[in-house]
## 1
Amino acid sequence: MNKQVLIEALNNHGFIRFFKASNGGFDPTDYPLLAQDEIYHLWVCSDAEFLASQEKHCTEGERAERLLKNRNLARAKLWRYFIAYTNTKLPGSAVAHELASQIKPWSASSQELTQVFHSGVEALSPDAINH
C-alpha cells in the first residue's frame, strides 16, 4: 500500500464529497476527537499500530480480528470509490469493480488510474497488480 496515495485521497475534498454522496456510508475523515494527522495515521498504520490505538476496545482474539476486518473492508471500499471517482464512473460500475480486483489497493495514484483506464493495467508496475 502506498500510504501517500491514501492520504492524498483523504485530503481530496471532492473525493470525500463523492464518497459520502454516493452511499459510501460514512465520512472517513470525520473523527471529531482526533487531529487530522491522527485520522490519517489510523488509515495507513500497520495492523499492530491500529490495534494499539484502540484503547477503548478489547483488542484480543475475535474482537481484534473484527476490528481489522472492518478497517480492511473500509479501505477496500474507499479504494473502489477512489477508482470510480478518478475515472468519473459510478462506484458500483463493472469498470470500478474490475479495476479494484486487478490492482492492489492504494498502489496507484490518480494519474496512474487514469492511465490504466485508457491503457489497461499493463501500464502499471507489476508490483501494483494482483496476481
Note: The two ends are 15 Å apart (CA to CA).
## 2
Amino acid sequence: MKYNPNEIEAKWQKFWKENQTFKTDNKSDKPKYYVLDMFPYPSGAGLHVGHPLGYIASDIFARYKRQRGFNVLHPQGYDSFGLPAEQYAIQTGQHPSITTEENISRYREQLDRIGFSFDWSREVRTSNPDFYKHTQWIFVQLFNSWYNCESNKAESIDTLIAMFEKEGNKTVKAVCDDHIPFFTAAEWSSFSSEEQEAMLLKYRMTYLAETEVNWCPALGTVLANDEIKDGLSERGGHPVVRKKMKQWSMRISAYAERLLEGLDQIDWTESLKESQRNWIGKSVGASVTFNVKDADHTIEVFTTRPDTIFGVSFMTLAPEHDLVLKITTPEQKAAVEAYIEATSKRSERDRMADVKTISGVFTGAYAQHPFTKEPIEIWIGDYVLAGYGTGAVMAVPAGDTRDYAFAKHFGIEIKNIFDKDISEEAFAEKDGFVLENSDFLNGLDYKAATAKVIERLEALGQGYGKTNYRLRDAVFSRQRYWGEPFPVYYVNGLPKMIDSKYFPIVLPEVEKYLPTEDGQPPLGNASVWAWDTVNNVIVDNSLIDEKTVFALELNTMPGWAGSSWYWMRYMDPTNEEVFASKEALDYWQNVDLYIGGSEHATGHLLYSRFWNKFLKDLNYAPTEEPFQKLINQGMILGTSAFVYRIEGTNTFVSKDMIQGEKVQKLYAYVGLVNASSELDTEAFKAWRPDYANAEFVLNGNGKYIVGHEVEKMSKSYFNVVNPDDICEEYGADTLRLYEMFLGPLEQAKPWNTAGISGVAGFLKKLWRLYADDNGVVITDQEPTAEMYKSLHKTIKKVIEDIENFSFNTSVSQFMICVNELSQQKCHHRAILEPLAIVISPYAPHIAEELWSMLGNSTSVALADFPEFKQEYLVESSKEYPVSFNGKMRFKIELPLDLNEDQIKEIVMSDERTQAQLQGREPKKVIIVPGKIINLVG
C-alpha cells in the first residue's frame, strides 16, 4: 500500500467539493473567525510558486481555527477588473470579459490543486454586474453625503441642505473645497437649482474637480502613483506626464485624523502602521497668506515653522500652481513655460525622491512679507508639489536644508534668524536656539514664537493656526473601458445620480477599447450609452435631446473601487437587495486575520479603511476598522539564470570561460538549467527563434555553465517555477509544507527546488507509520510514555507556532516527531489519530487519507484539534552529569523524586565513582536535584 499523492489529492479535493466541507453558515453557536487573503487579480500567466505562500499560511490558520471550535469564514474571489485584460483587448480585439474568464478558470484550477479550504459558494468577482451594482450604490451614498466636522463623521447631504436653508454656510464646519464664498439662508434660497447643485458639489464626499493627474498618452488613461516607475507606466513602460483633468475625486482627506487614530486599535506590524502614518503625514503649524506685489493675488502657504517667518528669503510655487502663469513677467515667460513643460514629464514620486537635483526658475514676480512688507522673490521649483499642502512654500534657507541648497545654487541672499552659525549649512532643529533678526520674536524659542506669530497673523487677517495632512483626496476616475461604470448622467454639465433601483448600470459594448479620436475615454466609442430619464433605461446616443435623454459618464471607476469593500460582500454574497444584510454584517463584524503583500501598505489598505469608516458613519458597517489583524507575507524569490553572448555575435561563452571579451548578460529560462548550473544547449536553441543558430564556447568538461542571481520571481526574468509542476511530481502537500519550511512567513526567501525532495521523503516516512506494502498497520495497543511524549511535544509546538504564525518551525517539529515515532516503531492508534489531525492544516490531503485509514468516515478538517497534556512531558527521571572537581566523567540516569541523600548514596556506590576516587573520600559532594552532581577533592 504505497503513498500516491496525485491519486490521494484528487480523491479528497473531489470529496471536499461534493460534500461542501468548507461551506460556512452565517448562523452558529460557535464563535466566529474570519480569515481572508488579499483580493487576487487573475493573471493570464497563472500562479507561480511565490503566489500561494500567503494562501497556504491563511489556509493553515483557517483549518486550525475550524478544528479549535470556531465557525470559520475563509472565502476567495477575484479582483477581476483591471488594465492587463483591457490592454489585451486593445491588442487583439477580444472582449476583456473573455480574457478574464479564461484567466479565472486557470487560476481556479491551480488553487483547487493546492487544496485550499475556501468556501467557494461565496465567490465574488468585481467585474460581475451583481457585484458592481453595489459598488455603484456605495458611490451614490458617497455623492449624497458630506463630512460634518462637528459630529466628526459623514452625514446625509440633506442635513447640510437644511443648514443652508436655515442659516447659510458661514457657521458650517465641513471638509469641503477651499475658498467657498459665504452666503446667507436668503441667498441660498435665491440660488437657482443648478447653482445650488454646483455649490453642494463643493461639499459632497465624492465630487468633480480639476485635478493634477498622471496621464499616460500611450495607454490613454490616468495612472495612480504606484502604477508608475521612473516616469514610465509600470505596464508597457510608456511615458507619463502631469496634466489637469476634470475627475471624480473622493474626500479621503476628511478621514485623515480618524485613519491615524484607528491604527492604535488594530493588530498590525509597527512598520506597516508607520507607512500609513507617513502617507497620511500629519503636520501642525500655520496657514500664512502672502500678497503678491502689484497684483490682486494672494499666495497661501502652510508651514510647520511659523516661528521662522522673518527668515523668508524667497517663495517657491509648484510649476503647476494656478498662479504661475498669471504672475510671471513677460521677460520670464519663455523660461517658465519651458520649465513647466519639462516638469510635466516627471512623476510626483520621482520629484519627491530626487533630493540631489536642484532646479527652478524665477517668475519675475514678488510677494510682500506680511509683517515687514518687504518684497520676496517668487520662484517655481519641482520640489514643490501642487497637490501637497497649497502647492507653495515660504522658503527659509537658514532653517531648511533644501531651501538652503536652492538659495546657494541660485545665489539668493540667506537671512540668518538664529543665534547659530549657518555659513556651512542650515540650522533645522526646533530647540536649542533663540530667534534674532526677527522683530517682535527676538529672544523667543520655537514654542513661544510659534504661538506669538499665529496670534499676530490672525490679528492681521493674514494667517491662522492649522493642522495639515499630506494625504490628498483620491482621484476616482479612469479613462478605461474595463471598470465599473459610474451611475451618472449629466444635465447642463452637472452630474445626476441614477436611482439605485435601476442598478446595475452595465458596461456597454464597444467596437474599440482605445480612447476615441477626439480624446474621449473608451466609453466614448459606445453608441448606446445615454440615459432616458422617463423610461429609466439606457438608450441609443442618437436620442440625446438634453430634455429627457442625457449623456452618461464616460469614465469608469478605478481598480480599487471594488476592492475597497469586497470583504463585506463575502458575508452575504447572494443578497440581491443590499451589499450584505445587517444580520450577516453584525455576525461577522470584520476580518479577524488578513494576509497579503506589503505592496498594499498604503493604497488599498487606506482606501479600504476609508470606505469602511464611511459605511460605519451611515450605519451600514458595524465596525470602524475592516481588518483587525494583518500580516504581510514575504516574497519568494526566484533564482535567475544568465547566459553570456559575445557582443555583435550569436556566440555564447560559458561563465567560467569568459576571458575579458565584451559580453551581454541575458536571461535564460531556468527550466533549461540543471542543479549543477549546466545549460541544455540544444533545448536553449529550440527555446527562442533568435537563438536557433547559437554557438557555444564550452568549458573543459564540455559544459556550458550559467550565472545565477536571486531576485524577484517574474515571467520577464524567466525564473518562474510553476506550482503545477511541483504538484505533479511531488504532490500538493509537499508544496504546502515546503513553502512553509522555507523560512519565517514575513521574510523574503529564495526558492530552491533541490530542497523539496526532503519534504517529499518526510511524507513517505509519515505514511509508513500507518501502512506498509501490505496495508494498514494500525494497532490498538497502549502506547509507551515516549510515544506520548513525542506526540504531545508536537501538539504543544504546533499550537504555539500557528498562534504565532511561525509555520516553518512546525514543519521541523513534524519531522522530529515522525523520526522519533519511527524509531519507537509506533503504529498505535492513540498516537497516530491525533497526529493526523495536528498535521492536517499543513498537509490536508494525506491527513484525510490517514484519517480514513484509521476508520473515520467524516473529514479530518472537522475533527477537534487534540488537547495538549502537560503530564506527558513531565520527566520521571533525569540523566545527571557526574563531575569530579568540575570535570564531567560520566552520566547516570536517576529518578527525579530522589532527595539529596538518596542521590549521594547511589552515586558513591557506583563503581565508576570508586574508580575515579581510588579510595579517597571527597571533601565535598555538591548535589542540585534535577541538575548536577559534583564531587570536590
Note: The mean pLDDT is 94.
## 3
Amino acid sequence: MSEVQPESTKKIETVSETKTTAPTVPPPRPSTTPDNTGGVGGFLNSWKFKLGLAVAAILALATGLFIFYYPHNIAMIGLKRWSAESGAQPIDCMMQDTDDNGYVSCSAKLDQKIFPLECGASIFNTGCRVFKEEILRQ
C-alpha cells in the first residue's frame, strides 16, 4: 500500500530569493517661496507689504525734500518779483530761514551794487525787504 517512489535523478535548482522593496521616494524639498498662508511672517514676506513699504519711503523722501526746499522756492519767487519791479538782477537766496524771523536772506544786484534782501518764506508773504543793516549804512 505504501508505494515508494523512486528517487529522481533530476537536480532541482533553487532560485535565490530576491527581496522586492517599495520604490524609494525622495523627501519633499523645502519650498523656496515664502509661506503666505497667513500670520505675521506671511504678511511681512508678501510682495504687497514690500511694495507698500517702498511707496511709503518714496513719499517720505519727496515730502522731506519739499519741506526742505519750500522756503527757498517761495523766497526765490519773491526775489524775482522784487527784482522785476525795481530793475535789479536777482542773484540767489539762502536755503533756509536762519534767524527764524519768517524771511530768507537773498541778494540782488542793482547798478553794480549788491543789495542784501530778506524775502518772505511763506506763501502768504512773498515780498522782499531791504536788509535792515543796509538801510542803517546809508
Note: The longest strand covers residues 103-110.
